[in-house]
Amino acid sequence: MLTIKEIRKVQSLEEAYELNQKKTNRIIGGMLWLKMQTGNVNIAIDLSNLKLDTIEETDSEFSIGAMVTLRDLETNAALNEYTHNAVREAVRHIVGVQFRNLATVGGSIFGRYGFSDVLTVFMALDAYVELHHAGIVPISEFAKMPYDNDVLVRIIVKKTPLACAYLSHRQTKTDFPVLAVAISHHHGKWQAVVGATPHRAAVIADENNILSGGLNTESTKKFAQYVKETVKTDSNIRGSAAYRKHLAYVLTKRALSSIGGIDA
After folding, report:
1. According to the UniProt entry, where is the signal peptide (predicted)?
2. Out of 32, 34, 123, 228, which could bridge 193 as a Cys pair, Cβ 3.0 to 4.6 Å?
3. 31-36 contacts: CB < 8 A, separation 24 or more?
4. 185, 163 contact by CB (below 8 A)
5. CA distances from 242 to 167, 195, 224 (A)
6. Minimal CA–CA distance to 179: which of 110, 119, 251, 257?
7. What's the CA gap between 147 and 116, in Å, rounded?
């Protein structure tokens, strides 16, 4: 059971940051994973007064506040048009609509969970996180950082010419993924982001320019094989390391085939 002594709705990010420096205090989002933990929280820091619950679009970027829900991501027409529905595909399997109406993107990203569909798909984009203290950091770098007591303010997705697809495999609907793959092409480079390995999502770039000549049956197979050989996987209750490597090949090939209009 989680015991909370006090809930405080902060009036500024600085107030939230100062409170969060104490180990006995915690920032709360949708309270979906946090409530399953055991422990005592002195002050639960509520960010809901800071207007961080909107997705704003400009000509150059999307700005996604930390308190935006996963359901907001799923239903935002502009964001999904830009990502070719990859964001919707990444979140639509997460438990159920009621859950996604509460779970926040800030909690999903800051947690950097190994099973996170949300982290996986945003790492495939030209995306950044804005932290109150550390500033703006590329999300691929943020994913590798150790946990600290900073405050995640928003996620920034830069608008660049983009090809993108997201696929995952689950043993049952609404369960955590056994493996997730996001394929993207921007800034002239192809990459695969593989999540639920079961470690934090990792980027596998097309360093050998396997796809530089375009997507076709042979190039998609070769890159899928490269991803399979490169990705680090381990075993847990959802699948073995070898099974995850097999899935990495299959999902990468299928995602590339869907982007290129190739029969998988």
Report:
1. none
2. 123
3. 31/102, 32/99, 32/102, 32/103, 32/107, 33/107, 33/111, 34/2, 34/107, 35/2, 36/2
4. yes
5. 19, 15, 15
6. 251
7. 16
**167 three-state secondary structure:** strand
Token pair for 235: 């075993």
The sign of the dihedral angle between the CA atoms of 126, 255, 79, 49 is: negative
227's tokens:
């991803």
| 87-137 pLDDT tens trace | 999 999 999 999 999 999 999 999 898 899 999 999 999 999 999 999 999
Q: How far apart are CA 206 and CA 95, in angstroms?
A: 33
Selection from 165, 126, 129 nearest residue 144 by Cα? 129
Instruction: Provide φ and ψ at 52, rounded to 5°.
Output: -105, 20
pLDDT digits (tens, 9 = 90+) for 22-60: 999 999 988 777 777 788 899 999 999 999 999 999 999
Cβ distance 35 to 29 under 8 Å? Answer: no
